[in-house]
Design brief:
The complex is a heterodimer. Chain A is α+β, with helices and mostly antiparallel strands. Chain A has helices at 2-20, 30-41, 46-56, 60-69, 89-93, 96-107, 149-176, and strands spanning 81-86, 120-125, 137-139, 142-144. The longest helix of chain A is centred in the C-terminal third of the chain and has 28 residues, at 149-176. Chain A is flat and about 50 Å long. Helices cover 27% and strands 16% of the residues of chain B. Chain B has helices spanning 19-25, 78-93, 109-117, 155-164, 186-196, 198-202, and strands spanning 2-6, 9-13, 50-53, 60-61, 72-74, 143-145, 169-172, 179-182, 208-210. In chain B, strand 3 and strand 4 form a beta hairpin. Classes of the chains: A alpha+beta, B alpha+beta. Chains A and B meet through helix 3 and helix 4 of A and strand 7 of B.
């Protein structure tokens, strides 16, 4: 599984390298370039930063400094099941920070990070637009309202079981083919 | 040449230089961390070099203004000291105070400033805010970074650009999480950094040390 992701990533990086040529080699293009690379790879791994630095004739350090300034750039791959915990005003008042902490503890990662198996990532967002359901968490595309600390474990477990089931089905299908 | 008065003392200095430099060169000490001789423009990041200028409503950072004729400057009024102490305490609240094991001990700029301002190193009524280094930061093979000693003055970055043309060291992240960091392939870093070491010698608080 890991090998296929790595190979896939290398191919995407090659792709991004080709797209680089469409940008003029100016420092002012750094942010559009980083946006393009992140669009391709979904995050900015260090080989990508090195590639951009080389293209623009900057040091990798310089590129890293600019990229880390902006919230929109991420340096960890997003999980297959991104979990967003709302910390907008209503959710915050209703204890959204406790929900976030529960996810962090359950998945053993910090906010903004991804689990080593790339299954989950946790991030905080400011309002998803349904404050009446506060506190809210969004797992993938599914919204979970009225979150409680006790619901966190069940939610993670359910997603893990669904993934296992899907994998099993895919296995059976490829075996029967 | 401009002729002006600092703390009741007449000082003469070239009009092209900053007030901070003029004072320092005339043995009038003003606390400062980020300014370096030769800088075209001071970063004004340490917020320590405040002075009071007669006729001006607010206190100003002396590294940012040029000297001019007949200005009357005071460097030790209660208002100046109050601002400097606050700025210093804020700096120290993000500083790991463990002088005994620190290589900068006794030649540390922070100890010097604390003595000058007659204030302790540990800020009162302020929580300590220390940082963590994230795991995705590849280490520099020849240099160690101590982000919790760093006062974010930016001297190392300036010096690196002066010596190498481009900076191998940078401010990363933002706001209260800002840290200095090396980032890049270990081969590149060891090629540029192992011999130069300019940042090690310029750091006022030993935040960059040899491995």
């Amino acid at each position: 599984m890991k090998e296929t992701t790595d190979a896939n990533e290398a191919a995407l990086l090659q792709d991004a390298r080709k797209r680089l040529e469409t940008f003029a080699k100016e420092r002012g293009n750094l942010i559009p370039i980083l946006q393009m690379v992140q669009e391709k790879l979904a995050y900015l791994p260090s080989p990508a930063l090195a590639m951009v630095a080389e293209y623009l004739g900057m040091t990798a350090s310089d590129v890293y400094g600019v990229a880390t300034f902006y919230n929109q750039f991420r340096f960890q791959p997003p999980g297959r099941n991104p979990i967003k915990v709302c910390l907008g005003t209503a959710c915050y008042v209703k204890g959204g920070d406790i929900i976030l902490e529960n996810f962090e503890r359950k998945l053993k990662i910090r906010e903004g990070d991804t689990t080593p198996d790339r299954e989950f990532s946790v991030e905080r967002v400011a309002c998803v637009g349904c404050c009446a359901l506060a506190p809210v968490a969004v797992a993938g595309e599914t919204l979970h309202g009225h979150m409680q600390p006790s619901k966190v474990e069940g939610l993670v477990l359910r997603i893990r079981m669904e993934t296992q089931k899907k994998e099993k089905e895919a296995d059976e299908k490829s075996n029967s083919d | 040449m401009a002729k002006f008065i600092v703390d009741n003392k007449t000082v003469e200095a070239d009009e092209s230089i900053t007030l901070l430099r003029a004072c320092l060169e005339n043995d009038i000490y003003i606390p400062n961390l980020c300014w370096l001789k030769g800088m075209a423009d001071a970063p004004v990041s340490c917020r320590l070099c405040f002075v009071e200028i007669e006729g001006e409503e607010q206190l100003t950072s002396s590294c940012k203004i040029k000297v001019r004729d007949d200005m009357v400057v005071k460097t030790d009024t209660p208002a100046v000291r109050r601002l400097q102490k606050t700025a210093f305490q804020l700096l120290m609240s993000a500083h790991e105070i463990n002088c005994k094991v620190c290589p900068a001990n006794k030649k540390c700029e922070l100890q010097k400033i604390a003595r000058f301002l007659k204030t302790g190193l540990k800020p009162k009524n302020m929580n300590s805010h220390l940082k963590e280094i994230s795991a995705d930061m590849p280490p520099n093979p020849s240099l160690d970074l101590h982000v919790n000693r760093c006062v974010l003055c930016g001297r190392c970055i300036y010096t690196c650009i002066q010596k190498q043309g481009q900076s191998q060291i940078t401010f990363a992240k933002r706001g209260i999480d800002t840290i200095i960091s090396f980032y890049g392939a270990p081969e590149v870093l060891s090629a540029t950094c192992s011999e130069c070491l300019a940042c090690v010698s310029i750091c006022p608080v030993s935040a960059i040390t040899l491995t």
